[in-house]
Amino acid sequence: MIKIKQNTANKRILQIAIPSIISNITVPLLGLIDVTIVGHLGAPSYIGAIAVGGMLFNIIYWIFGFLRMGTSGMTSQAFGKQDSNEVTRLLIRSVGIGLFLAFCLLLLQYPICKIAFMLIHTTDEVKELAILYFYICIWGAPAMLGLYGFAGWFIGMQNSRFPMYIAITQNIVNIIVSLCLVYLLDMKVAGVAPEL
User: Fold this and answer.
1) What range defines the domain where residue 179 resides?
2) How many helices and strands in the chain, by DSSP H and E?
3) For 120-133, what is each residue's pLDDT tens digit?
């Protein structure tokens, strides 16, 4: 009897964990595809710009990783207590905080960029392309931080499949759009910058 309960609990844990693992695997794949795309354009400065810009956004977005982690913890507690009002409030609160923080990032994009490139030393050509990449990518902050809140909420509701579907769809769309912008519209680094 104890073994059956343990097997059931293990299966339930795997049902939540495996989609989360798949979602996390898709994130670096997008960066790899972006580097591959610009790597075929013929100039090392393109790869440098994507590397610097990608590193900068990884830092910025991981600062706000608490949106996902904190939301999932509090939501799972409310879900366990069957407090549907608190569950709803947590969703609204986390997405609202994410959008507010994204709005702040948009307002402060010029000082953030200035400070970042005072600390990051690159060649002038890489710096110019990385700044272009930054000013395009920063407009994706509301979507990214909003998705952090949604993903944390769904994981707290013991549904990690929906965030996985969103992550896979988001990355497939980004890859297709990047390929079209770079190769069909000849937008180079600016073509891989728009991220959902």
Assistant:
1) 2-192
2) 9, 0
3) 888 888 888 889 88
Kindly report the number of other CB atoms within 10 A of residue 178's CB atom. 22
Higher pLDDT residue, 194 or 153? 153
Least confident of 2-11, 55-64, 87-96, 107-116: 2-11
**First vs last C-alpha separation in the chain:** 47
User: Residue by residue, what is the 3-state secondary structure of the chain?
Assistant: CHHHHHHHHHHHHHHHHHHHHHHHHHHHHHHHHHHHHHHCCCCHHHHHHHHHHHHHHHHHHHHCCHHHHHHHHHHHHHHHCCCHHHHHHHHHHHHHHHHHHHHHHHHCHHHHHHHHHHHCCCCHHHHHHHHHHHHHHHHHHHHHHHHHHHHHHHHHCCCCHHHHHHHHHHHHHHHHHHHHHHHHCCCCHHHHCCCC
Total number of domains constituting the chain: 1
Mean pLDDT on 26-43: 74
pTM: 0.80
